[in-house]
Amino acid sequence: QVQLVESGGGLVQPGGSLRLSCAASGFTFSSYFMSWYRQAPGKERELVARIGAGGIFTYYTNSVKGRFTISRDNAKNTLYLQMNSLKPEDTALYYCARRSTLGDDDYWGQGTQVTVSS
User: Fewest CB atoms within 10 Å of the CB: 18, 63, 64, 101?
Assistant: First the structure.
């Protein structure tokens, strides 16, 4: 069955960095677009970044452009999110998701918490 398992979250000071990972299994990872979302308490879930199946296409929401980098290693079936210059407003539960061929996100991980605080 399809599984997505995030890791790498934690507590970091403002200006710090974290690298999130999403280990995928149960499907042909290299055939699918993948996404990172986040949800802060009391807020709606928002798309943070998306990457094409081959890793060439990328999209970022405006608030993270220039600070976050999405990447993937198709040989390792793993999705990454490198987060630099972190701000308190980046605090959220971060999820990875598989983009289905129908254009929706059909499988989600359980999330990894990122807290940016001094």
Answer: 101
Q: Are 69 and 59 in contact (CB under 8 A)?
A: no
Determine contact, residues 20/81, Cβ cutoff 8 Å: yes
Helix, strand, coil fractions of the chain, as percent rounded to 5: 10, 50, 40
Measure Cα distances from 65 to 1, 68, 85, 86 in Å: 33, 6, 11, 12
What is the Cα–Cα distance from 66 to 16, expressed in whole angstroms? 14
Using a 10 angstrom Cβ sphere, with 0-12 exposed, 13-18 middle and 19 or more buried, the burial of residue 104 is exposed
